[in-house]
Design brief:
mainly alpha, 2 domains, 4 helices, globular
Length: 95
Amino acid sequence: MVTNMDTGHDLARALGRNPTVLMRGHGPIATGKTIRQTVFIAIKAQESADFQREASRFPTVKYLSDGEIAKMQQLLDFADIEKPLRGIDHAWEYW
C-alpha cells in the first residue's frame, strides 16, 4: 500500500511510462490518460493474465514481439482522441 511519499515515489518510478504495475501484497495498478483508458487497461490486463495462465499449459507460447507491443501502445495513446466509439470508447459503451 502507498502510505507515504516514499512509497508513492517508488510506485511512480516502477510505473515509469508503463500503464500497469504489480504491487507485492496489493495487486495490479492501472493508469491511463482518462478514466475510460484506465478502466480499459485494467480489464484487458486481467483478461491477458487469464489468457497467459491458460496458454502456459502448452509446451510453447509465442508472446507479443516488442514491435507488436509498441503498436498496441500507439493504439492506446490515440484511442480516446481520434474517433469517437472506436476501440476504448466502444468497449466503454459495451461495459
